[in-house]
Amino acid sequence: MSHLFANYKRLPVSFLSGSGCWLKGNDGKDYLDFLSGIAVTSLGHSHPKMVEALTAQVEKLLHVSNLYEIPEQERAAELLVETCGNGHLDRVFFCNSGAEANECLLKLARKYAHSKGLPPQVLVTTNGFHGRTLATVSATGTPKYHEGFAPLVSGFSFVDYNDTEAALKALDECCAVLVEPIQGEGGVIPAEGEFLSALEQACKAQDKLFLLDEVQTGVGRTGHWLAAQHYGVQPHAVSLAKGLGSGMPVGAVLAKAELAELLGPGTHGTTFGGNPLACRAVTTVVETIGAEKLLDNAREMGEYLRKRLLALAGITEVRGVGLMLAAVTERPAGEIVEAAFQKGLLANAVRPQVIRFAPPLVVKEQEIEQAIDILGSVLTPARIS
Ligand SMILES: *Cc1c(COP(=O)(O)O)cnc(C)c1O
Which residues, 6 or more positions from 2, have their beta carbon under 8 angstroms from its beta carbon? Predict the structure, then answer.
């Protein structure tokens, strides 16, 4: 009998160790990891630079609290501003997860509304996902995540994703928009360029906040530091987490300075957020993405994977950008994922007929070929003669 909460449905395997795109199972099998712990292990498993940096940091110092200066935090923030900041986001707040980063965005939006006399309402989208804390789950546009948790946090207006007309209308009663540039948990659904740019322009014209949830899309996943760069939009702030620490739990908000100023001393905080170990991970991730040209690799390998998936019988559509991809399948995705798992490939059925692929940003062509071989063998079951 397990002493754990039963809130996860787990596959019957555990992993003993990992290297690059590969995991060693306790069943003696090697698994090709095309999920990266849900878009987290961006540098792959046990990247030598991570092992070296984190080992050195553990030996030196783990935690001191935000009562003191933390040079590792300053360094990580400097690098994030240089890369994900895209020339206009210049302040960073560190926390521990994607939901916490979005909580910070939502609290910023409330502060902003009250400082400007705007309605403290935030525009969000149906089928979106922003986390599991009470406020972020309230902002999440998937009704099943709300079941049994009433009363939810109020102050959210929902519109359909990519419905520009409805969004512009609903914006009248809001102070801010919070949207994923590509809906991840919703099934890897990219925003239409027009939807994001219309919202950006309307927010800027009306002095409202254009906020992007880049928890899944950020830090190289789409072949850009931010998916915002892919779309050519400039948000007032973004949330980051998943790939940010390549496995160290860490989240961050990047914001314009005038927005960051709304949260002065004592207004917001976290005990663990931005501790030296987490920040050392962030610095190493950002440096390594740069040094190993992993943005280019994500774009090139993403295109390669897309092309190879599209050529498989049983796949009708491939969606996504860079290495955040999903294949729409003719057969139930759950059955295919299960069969692929048996053959040593990890991916997940993000929707009943949609398989999500998010391999580490270091993935190589040959590993994609191995994944395609496995998928090809399970997509169309061998004919019974
Ligand atoms: C995963 C995810 C979150 C929540 O992140 P946690 O670290 O699980 O709290 C929020 N937004 C998006 C877009 C995500 O993909």
Answer: none
